[in-house]
């Protein structure tokens, strides 16, 4: 915990730092938070969010000053478009691999428009396959609309094409010999879902439960690990940060974008 305590003390000097120094400290803080065994403490989250609000206020003041001086640069542009060349943190989120116009528009609804905005997203919890229960137990203790994290076995997997759309569909059971009790669909994916999730594979996943009649369903869940060789999925699983939900943006895509933003800040 000592490195994290030291980083908190650095926040007291945050406003006196230049832009590059601030970006480095943000990246360092996120890396420290990701080393924790559990979710970040409320104190850490509040500290980061307080600094974020201060930065937004300072940006607003700068924009007002530009308008008063009658500067043409930045007029009629969205956030990040009027940034000086060579500032990778001021670039639009579309500069991050995998983020196109549609996802960028969804992020903008939550105020996430630049690479720097991605740096300020703090994980709300952590997904750890070592703490997961079997699928049947997880469903039995949860209700519709609740998020579960569980281990499950693939019974069938296929690509579905209908009404001009395509998606991957996998049916899961609670044990290797059990009947399917959960249908999972991944939208906006390429072919090969059957190769990634072969029958018999054990998968650690986390997502929100939905019910259609007597069938439990899940859409675009996080995959923590896959074991196809008969080993323990816990050994193959990852500990993943779970960021705040952004409607229209898959959790995995948001997570990779945040990781790319941290890497860009560290290399800047």
How are the secondary structure elements laid out?
Blueprint: H1 2-11, H2 19-34, H3 42-69, H4 101-108, H5 115-119, E1 125-128, E2 133-134, H6 135-140, E3 147-162, E4 165-173, E5 180-187, H7 193-196, E6 202-208, E7 210-212, E8 215-219, E9 222-227, H8 233-236, E10 239-242, H9 251-267
Helix pairs in contact: 1-2, 2-9
What's this, in brief?
The chain has 268 residues and is α+β, with helices and mostly antiparallel strands.
Structural features, described:
The protein has about 270 residues and is an alpha+beta fold. It has three domains: about 5-65, no CATH class; about 95-125 and about 245-265, no CATH class; about 125-240, OB fold (Dihydrolipoamide Acetyltransferase, E2P) (Beta Barrel). About 35% of the residues lie in helices and about 25% in strands. The chain is built from nine helices and ten strands. The chain has helices at about 1-10, 20-35, 40-70, 100-110, 115-120, 135-140, 195, 235, 250-265; strands at about 125-130, 135, 145-160, 165-175, 180-185, 200-210, 210, 215-220, 220-225, 240. Strands 2, 3, 4, 5, 6, 7, 8 and 9 form an eight-stranded mixed beta sheet that branches. Strands 1-10 form a two-stranded antiparallel ribbon. Strand 2 (about 135), helix 6 and strand 3 form a beta-alpha-beta unit. Helix 1 runs antiparallel to helix 2 (about 20-35) and helix 2 (about 20-35) packs across helix 9 (about 250-265). The longest helix is centred in the first third of the chain and has 28 residues, at about 40-70. The chain is elongated.
């Amino acid at each position: 915990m000592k490195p994290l305590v030291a980083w908190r003390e650095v926040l007291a000097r945050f406003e006196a730092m230049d832009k590059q120094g601030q970006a480095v400290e943000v990246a360092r803080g996120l890396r420290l938070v990701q080393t924790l065994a559990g979710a970040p403490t409320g104190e850490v989250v509040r500290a980061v969010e307080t600094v974020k609000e201060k930065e937004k206020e300072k940006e607003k003041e700068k924009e007002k000053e530009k308008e008063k001086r009658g500067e043409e640069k930045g007029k009629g542009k969205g956030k990040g478009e009027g940034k000086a060349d060579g500032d990778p943190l001021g670039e639009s989120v579309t500069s991050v691999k995998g983020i196109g116009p549609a996802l960028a528009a969804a992020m903008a609804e939550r105020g996430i428009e630049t690479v720097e905005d991605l740096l300020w997203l703090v994980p709300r919890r952590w997904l750890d396959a070592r703490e997961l229960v079997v699928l049947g137990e997880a469903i039995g203790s949860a209700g519709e609309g609740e998020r579960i994290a569980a281990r499950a076995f693939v019974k069938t997997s296929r690509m579905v094409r209908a009404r001009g759309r395509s998606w991957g569909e996998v049916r899961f059971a609670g044990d290797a010999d059990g009947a399917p009790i959960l249908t999972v669909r991944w939208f906006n994916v390429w072919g090969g879902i059957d190769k990634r999730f072969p029958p018999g594979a054990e998968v650690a996943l986390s997502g929100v439960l939905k019910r259609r009649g007597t069938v439990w369903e899940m859409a675009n869940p996080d995959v923590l690990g896959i074991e196809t060789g008969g080993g323990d999925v816990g050994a193959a699983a990852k500990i993943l940060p779970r960021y705040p939900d952004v409607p229209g943006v898959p959790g995995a895509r948001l997570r990779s974008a945040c990781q790319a933003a941290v890497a860009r800040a560290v290399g800047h």
